[in-house]
Design goal:
The protein is an alpha/beta fold and about 400 residues long. About 30% of the residues lie in helices and about 25% in strands. A 7-stranded mixed sheet has the order 16-15-14-17-18-20-19, sandwiched between helices.
């Protein structure tokens, strides 16, 4: 049990009684003891009723809830939570599947482990901490992860320098907690192979959350000319090629991303002349693209990570989608996405609607897309639904 207690102001326990996993700093009346950032604390209502146990942190979100009971946060706790997450992935056919070995094992609040992300690439787990508490527990979590996955797990890479609170004095700790660098950092998704740069790449090295949306794109790609904007490591590109696209062009402002895209396409389609890749700014490329493409993918990085830049982000989505919609060929398809958590589905859809109205073209929504089953949304934490997408048909 914790030596530190947090007492809430009167009536501020209501969100916890609805099992919401965050406590904001403004709800706190008093702190007993001297908790340091990342420590485990117990939370009590104003009348001293026990409410929850969680990680203490400096900032707007002051406590991330680990348990709504007085459960010790020990080895058994971590193993139990990780085992539950693994059971879910097996239930939906992602863990242990024959056509792929890539999936998200832990998705923060969606797996009742707020502040923790773990992606699996073959025999390697890439772990990210988004809270100081999870950072402090990384070795304990790694040991529990090995206990749960056994021989299926040979390497654990910890990658949190870019995700921990920037004011937290945690030092630079990225590196292997188990095993080490293998000969090939390669994984497989739906029978397609790809290299993963979990040490220097964005996020954990690959955008696992677009798996099912890439599969949908594959169904629509036959005989189409495809433009994959913000291609990163080329996921949508090699799915489009397997789907029978006549031309696939990949564009990203990062030269390193373009090199990885070329490697991944060559890995799956060696010597295939249908693919070209360009390191160029998205808007500049679209300006000169003409109407040569009849299938486009817009999957930009988050335009808004904080609410104070939301207005600018929505303007960015309008501008980007208007540029694509004005240039896509007749009868074309646009796959457009937002991964900004602070942008709601309604706001994103309104931004795309405004872009369509600006171009004056006839546009229909064919699909409304979201994140896959290994990125579950805790029903008590709807903020966890961050990925939004639309498939549009442009007459």
């Amino acid at each position: 049990m914790s030596d530190c207690n947090v007492i809430l102001k009167p009536k501020k326990e209501e969100s916890l009684l609805r099992f919401h996993p965050w406590i904001f700093s403004g709800a706190i009346h008093a702190v007993e003891g001297n908790p340091q950032e990342g420590d485990v604390v117990e939370v009590y209502a104003a009348d001293r009723r026990f409410l929850a146990t969680g990680h203490y942190q400096i900032g707007s979100i002051a406590i991330r809830i680990l348990s709504f009971s007085q459960t010790p946060i020990d080895d058994a706790f971590w193993a139990g939570r990780l085992r539950a997450a693994y059971t879910l992935r097996r239930a939906v056919g992602l863990a242990g599947g024959e056509s792929g070995n890539t999936y998200r094992l832990v998705h923060g609040e969606g797996d009742n482990l707020p502040g923790l992300v773990i992606d699996i690439y073959a025999e390697t787990a890439v772990m990210q901490a988004h809270s100081v508490g999870m950072h402090h527990a990384r070795h304990q979590i790694a040991a529990a992860l090995k206990t749960v996955l056994g021989e299926a797990l040979q390497h654990i890479y910890y990658k949190s320098e870019a995700t921990l609170p920037y004011k937290a004095d945690t030092g630079k700790e990225d590196g292997y907690l188990l095993g080490g660098a293998g000969d090939e950092d390669m994984a497989m998704e739906n029978g397609l192979r790809f290299y993963v740069d979990w040490q220097k790449g964005q996020k954990t090295g690959f955008f696992v959350d677009q798996r099912e949306n890439r599969s949908l794109l594959e169904r629509y790609a036959r005989n189409r000319s495809v433009l994959n904007m913000f291609c990163y490591t080329g996921g949508f590109s090699f799915y489009a090629m397997r789907g029978g696209a006549t031309v696939v062009h990949s564009v990203d402002s990062s030269a390193k991303a373009i090199l990885m895209t070329k490697k991944n396409v060559e890995l799956n389609f060696p010597g295939d002349p249908r693919h070209e890749a360009f390191a160029e700014d998205a808007f500049k490329y679209l300006e000169k693209a003409g109407n040569r493409y009849d299938l486009m993918i817009l999957d930009p990085p988050a335009f808004a990570k904080h609410k104070n830049v939301l207005r600018n982000a929505l303007q960015g989505y309008r501008k980007l989608n208007a540029a694509a919609l004005s240039r896509i060929g007749r009868g074309g398809l646009l796959f457009t996405f937002s991964c900004s958590q602070v942008v709601s589905k309604e706001q994103f859809r309104l931004a795309v609607f405004s872009a369509a109205a600006q171009t004056g073209r006839q546009v229909s929504i064919l699909h409304q897309l979201t994140q896959p089953a290994d990125h579950p949304v805790n029903i008590y934490h709807p903020e966890g639904e961050y990925l939004k997408g639309l498939v549009l048909y442009v007459e």
